[in-house]
Amino acid sequence: MIVCVAEKPSVGEYIARVLGANQRKNGYFEGNGYQVTWTFGHLCALLDPQEYSEQWKGWNLSTLPMIPARFAIKVSGDEGVHKQFNVIKSLIEQADEVINCGDAGQEGELIQRWVYQQAGCKCPVKRLWVSSLTEEAIREGFQALKDQSEYQHLYEAGMMRAIGDWLLGMNATRAYTIRYARGTGKDRQVLSVGRVQTPTLALVVKRQAEIENFVPRTYWELKTNYRDTLFNAQIPVEEGEYAITSEEQGQALVDSIKDLPLTITGVEKKKGTEFAPKLYDLTSLQVDCNKKYSFSAEQTLQLIQSLYEKRVTTYPRVDTTYLSDDIYPKVPNTLAGIKDYYPQVAPLLGTKLPKSKKVFDNKKVTDHHAIIPTGMRPEGLTADEKKVYDLVALHFIAAFYPECEVSNTTVLAKAGEIDFKVTGREVLKPGWRAVFEKDNQNTPNTLSTPNDSDDDSSEETKSLPAFVKGESGAHEPLLKEKTTTPPKYYTEATLLRAMETAGKTVENDELREAMKENGIGRPSTRAAIIEKLYQRKYIVKQGKSLRATETGINLIHTIISPLLKSAELTGLWEKKLREIERGEYQAQDFLTELKEMTSGVVRDVKTNKAGMLCPVCRQGLIIRGNTRYGCSRWREGCTYAEPF
């Protein structure tokens, strides 16, 4: 008998139907030589500290760091979870072969491997790897099963991620809680520290401090109105400085040119093209759903996961915006499958579709391709599922439309000694933009132009009058008072982008793609990390803005180890995990680094007394003087002091 283990009951039921295993049993389906069962999420987990050693049961600084000689796993969950595990175990014990039908990613591989280990699996294991749950994809997947050994590096990367989270999370949380948390016993506040959670919180805290400490500066901009077009003065300044720093200075410039004509000194027109928006990876979909519909990252993940399980979109937990070459021949059928729902498909049917490197690139696709429709009829969707599906479908359709052709115009002018400039853009042929026309009911109506802005810079998206070099005439100079503004609070959308680029502000799509290797967290886990920050009351949401709470701010200020709160350092760690996945870095070497890092974090806490709660009065904090540590309440009579 061949035993197939799916990631959840609904997926198991559909795989069983495709395989002809139609007899429902207790916890599995059977038939046609197959038994199809399923897990419930993380069925197995690493042991808790006290399960390794009795001395780790209590929280004592002297017992840290906790580094097991060998990590072990257990079945983790309620009675229902244990019951299902026993079903899987009994099936595996009698199986001739096991097929891993789990989630086709790093986390899914780890979940399944641990279940097989705990069940004592001795028979051969094959791997089903599919990017959608359509009947065609599943049948193709079963025709191309691979031996489990081919995914060994994927498993090792997942295991190192789990061990790393355990080592740093368990040890750092205990160390910082013991040393710095207020209260005692059951009343003591737990300072939860995590490998990805803490640097993510640090990003929010840092941005909030920048906003709160921001000192606005007033400056002025010189513009002039000529033929109902606003030209901007081009006054050379050093980087970071402003050309006009006082109203008197600005008014003097206005007075120097107001009676002089403005002369057009140059007109340059360049034709250009705009490419369609990239296809979606999980992060970019979460970003757009947050911007357009205020969906949280977790909500978007649940919606796209539901669409995947309803077989209308492909595998969602991906970090690429590209398709592999083998998808190209399937595109016409996919488009044909959704033509009744999207009139924008009609012009593409029966034509030779373009195959752009901006869409199809094998080098930028590893385990899975970008999120696209499967071509199945999108029926029975909820209102929110429909919104997410529309985004995925319209981006996919737009990818095969012609490029948008534009004309970019730059007009230079001069009045007296002052140069002016204005730029404009005219759409010559809308191309893919027709897919996103605002009057289309399926359109999210927010893709009007890549350069939309609330500021005057939006003028560059407008077409300009026909200026001729050498013409001149009267104009109306004006002075605009401006005030510098602080950076904006993170939203879930911008925080996801910051996690993806390890805190770097990156607008360019190509550069952002290159930086994903060093992002913090995985696309599939970033939403959960943000949710944890909410749950632990480290951050709150005000409107769309994310604000760090006093608890969150205090935690970041308390943490002394750069490793624990640096997005860049954590990003480098993520890079090594990806290298393990590709077989370019040894898991054992990484484990050695993990142990050294953990020991260093604990050592930092043990040797740093400043900031800890006073052991005498339990109210003040320890501060460092010139020759000794003392309690901050020494004026109130606290006697604690010791040399260092």
Describe the secondary structure blueprint for this structure.
Elements: E1 2-6, H1 9-19, E2 23-24, E3 29-31, E4 34-38, E5 44-46, H2 49-52, E6 73-75, H3 79-93, E7 97-101, H4 106-118, E8 125-127, H5 135-143, E9 146-147, H6 152-180, H7 197-212, E10 218-226, E11 229-233, H8 247-257, E12 262-274, H9 282-293, H10 297-309, H11 331-338, H12 383-398, E13 404-415, E14 418-429, E15 472-473, E16 476-483, H13 492-500, H14 509-515, H15 526-535, E17 539-542, E18 545-548, H16 550-558, H17 562-565, H18 567-581, H19 587-607, E19 622-624, E20 628-631, E21 641-643
Parallel strand pairs: 1-4, 1-7, 7-8
Antiparallel strand pairs: 2-3, 3-4, 5-6, 8-9, 10-11, 10-16, 11-14, 12-13, 12-15, 13-14, 17-18, 19-20, 20-21
Helix pairs in contact: 4-6, 6-18, 6-19, 9-10, 9-13, 10-12
Whole-angstrom Rg: 30 Å
Query: Strand order across the biggest sheet?
Result: 2-3-4-1-7-8-9
Shape: flat
What portion of the residues fall into strands of 2 or more residues? 15-25%
What is the tally of beta strands?
21
SS content category: alpha+beta
Number of helices: 19
Q: Give helix % range.
A: 25-40%
Span from first to last CA?
69 Å
Q: What composes the largest sheet?
A: 7 strands, mixed
The overall pLDDT average reads: 90
Which spans of ≥5 residues are poorly predicted at pLDDT below 50?
A: 439-460
> What is the subunit arrangement here?
single chain
Structure characterization notes:
The chain has 644 residues and is an alpha+beta fold. It has helices at residues 9-19, 49-52, 79-93, 106-118, 135-143, 152-180, 197-212, 247-257, 282-293, 297-309, 331-338, 383-398, 492-500, 509-515, 526-535, 550-558, 562-565, 567-581, 587-607, and strands spanning 2-6, 23-24, 29-31, 34-38, 44-46, 73-75, 97-101, 125-127, 146-147, 218-226, 229-233, 262-274, 404-415, 418-429, 472-473, 476-483, 539-542, 545-548, 622-624, 628-631, 641-643. The strands form five sheets. The chain has a seven-stranded mixed sheet, sandwiched between helices.
